[in-house]
Amino acid sequence: MHELLLFGQVPRSRHEQVLKILAGVAAMQPHRVLERHVVYKPQREPEEPGSHLRRGGTQAVTQKQIKQVAPKDLYFTQLVQTLSEDDFNQPNGQMQENGEPQLAGGGDSGVEPKWSEQFHDVPDTSDRGVLVRMSITTDIMSGDPHAYMIEGGNQFVSEYYQEGHRFVHENIVILLHRVLQELGVRPLETPPKPILPAFAALQPLDPSGGYILQAMIRVLDLNNPTILDAGVEELKRFKAQIKGCVELDVPDRLLLDTRVKYKPKQVVPPSKPAQAGVR
Amino acid sequence: MSQAVGQSAAQTAGQTLSPEDIKVLETLRIRLAPLVRNLELLQQEVGATQDGLPTWPSLQKSSSILNQTLSSLLSVLTSNADILTTLTPYPTSAFPAGQHWGILDALLQKKHLPDVDKWINDRLRKAGEFCAGAEEFVDLSGGKKKDDKDEEGVKGKEEIEGVKRMKGTLNEEEIYYLWENAGTWGVDVIQKSLQEMGYGKSPGEEEGEESDVKDEEMKDVEGVKEMGKKELEAPMMPLGTVLKFMSTGTMP
Question: What Pfam families does its record include (chain B) (predicted)?
Fold first, then answer.
């Protein structure tokens, strides 16, 4: 599955207005979206870029070029929990009857899965006027998603909440959202919190409280140029349509880079082992 | 012009002057020297640049230096006005008038040269657009308008009569007020936005000061200020930062 994306920004003061305009454009009521994103990265540290290349001089005069295989990139992955406002409003201790924390998967009741694993590739380098990236979403039907991620060789990085509204206009999924996070020091503890904080205690990441407008078209197969072009066209049409209300644009693709960056190892004082990787 | 005249009087007729007079004239000479030097520098600079004007920063620098020298000159002039107004130049018999008639001519001249007159008139006309005449300067200013012309408050009435006064929108006080407070307002706005971002403390004091002055200009300015505040109210986090956070879970 591939995503064609455009982004724009909406100041907080204009949020209401843009919400109404979008409702008019899409001819639907905004659909409330509340999500909890838990970010993971592989436990293994990325290798130093270029470490696979032969370093230093060689005395061999002519040597056949050995094919050098670059180390595989490591990527951030996310667990996404679909929430509703009711989830937040439950008084402390969001425990289910059997005492298991809510973090456990949505259960087997056949309703929409609460958790899903999301992977976004780095947007590709093509210049189509929209951002194109591969995206894989796997719904987790049952079990403990966090344990699953840890078993898969990942470690917890941080979590944030995404709050906003979703519209669907023709083939475009429009998401007007902003990022919320808990106040205070970003938790470095390994498991994500099993208990949801109070919704009011969440603070927008952007201190001005601005929103982000994301327009997305999902394309199953990039190899079909007609479909791809139609999607790009539609997205550009939408961009032109909403021009003057929200300026949609293509951000630098590396801003959506999900690769884990190599950080030179720092000497960790012996008193605090195993912290360097989390940072 | 009179100080130049006085200066020559000090050199040529030192014996008839009291030590105090000489001291005042010497101070004047010391103040005039940097003025001349700075003007020469500016002239060189203007001459050196091909396409007319030097760069703005260097212009700004030289004009502020000139302004400083002029105002220190003015303070000397006004504080020693009693002595300076009583001094008059005249050539002594020892002066080689035959060789240096040009200097003599310039020193003894009582009226300005036509082009100097034109400068003065131009400047005064410009100043008349927004300045109210400062009465106490009018009497003193007899011969030294040339130097006073850059000071806003100074204006000879008789010079003004032949000049058409134009109505400006701001008067001197308003302009002064505007410039005095422009910095504060700027800081105010910045502080506000910083505060919203969670840094710094509340500005506070400026509010009272502003509300003291009530004229129309003030309202306008305040209107502009309000608008500015609204626009600056939400300095949004760059989209890139948010996107980066969303994809990696940490702040870049």
Answer: Med8
- Selecting from A76, A207, A251 the residue whose C-beta is nearest the C-beta of B197 gives A207
Domain boundaries A2-44+72-256, corresponding CATH code: 2.40.320.10
Cβ pair A255:B237 closer than 8 A: no
B227 interface with A at CB cutoff 8 Å: no
- Digit-coded pLDDT (tens) for A23-68: 999 999 999 999 989 888 888 877 777 766 666 666 666 656 666 6
Check CB contact under 8 Å for B234 and A208. yes
Residue A178's DSSP bridge partners are A163
For residue B249, give the nearest of A11, A158, A210 by CB distance: A158
Nearest-5° Cα angle at A274, A268 to A278: 100
pLDDT in tens, B158-188: 444 455 444 556 677 777 777 777 777 777 8
Please indicate, yes or no, whether the overall pTM of this predicted structure exceeds 0.90: no
Put simply, the answer to whether B250 touches A7 (Cβ < 8 Å) is no
User: Which residue of chain B has the CA closest to A75?
Assistant: B248
* Cβ atoms of A105 and A146 closer than 8 Å: no
CB A10 within 8 A of CB A176: yes
Domain with CATH 1.20.58.1710 in chain B: 19-89
- A210 chain-B contacts, CB cut-off 8 A: 234, 236-237
Q: Do B234 and A258 touch (CB under 8 A)?
A: no
Residues of chain A with pLDDT under 50: 92-110, 275-279
3-class DSSP state of A209: coil
Alpha-carbon gap: B216 to the closest alpha carbon of chain A (Å):
30
Task: Determine the topology of domain B19-89 in CATH.
Answer: Methane Monooxygenase Hydroxylase; Chain G, domain 1 (1.20.58)
- A92-99: list long-range contacts, CB under 8 Å, 24+ apart: A92/A195, A93/A195, A94/A194, A94/A195, A94/A196
User: DSSP 3-state assignment of A124?
Assistant: coil
Domain ranges of chain A: 2-44+72-256
Å between B235 CA and nearest CA of chain A: 6
